[in-house]
Amino acid sequence: MIKFLQKFGNSISEKHKVLKSKYGSGSPSYSTVSRWYKYFSNGRTELVDNPRPGRPKSGQTDTKVKKVSAVLDKDRRHTVREICDRVRLPFGTVYRIITVVLGLVLKYAR
Questions:
Q1: Where are the domains of the chain?
Q2: Alpha helices (runs of H) in the chain, residue ranges in sequence order
Q3: How far out from the chain centre does Cα 87 lie?
């Protein structure tokens, strides 16, 4: 909608008022309308975020999950540290793969 309104010569505040009257409390804030107006004015055509440089958000990749899963398929009686040593991955990554991705529950014997 902002992209559509950008084609008309209205000010940002008028565009925000149109969106507010159309969508009510679900409309974007003035700062969001202003930011997207600036993006579209500079030639942006997509709403999808551009890729960002730097460290990825997650250390979990399909290959890492497959490695951990393969170790667990052979024998489920390994500790997280033993799996870390076998697949050469950090403790936190292996722990998240086991508990979140694979959905397994860690049980400790006494």
A1: 2-41, 62-101
A2: 2-6, 12-23, 30-41, 62-74, 80-87, 91-96
A3: 25
Q: How far apart are CA 55 and CA 65, in angstroms?
A: 19
Q: What phi-psi label fits residue 46: left (phi over 0), alpha (psi between -120 and 50 degrees) or beta?
A: beta
Q: What is the pLDDT of residues 33-85, one digit of tens each?
A: 888 778 777 777 777 777 778 776 666 788 999 999 999 999 888 899 999 99
Which run of H or E residues covers position 90? none
pTM of model > 0.90: no
Alpha-carbon distances of 101 from 31, 81, 94, 96, 110, rounded to whole Å: 37, 18, 10, 7, 26
Q: Which residue has the tokens 């950090």?
A: 90
Count Cβ atoms within 10 A of the Cβ of residue 51 and give its class: 0-12 exposed, 13-18 middle, 19 or more buried.
Answer: exposed
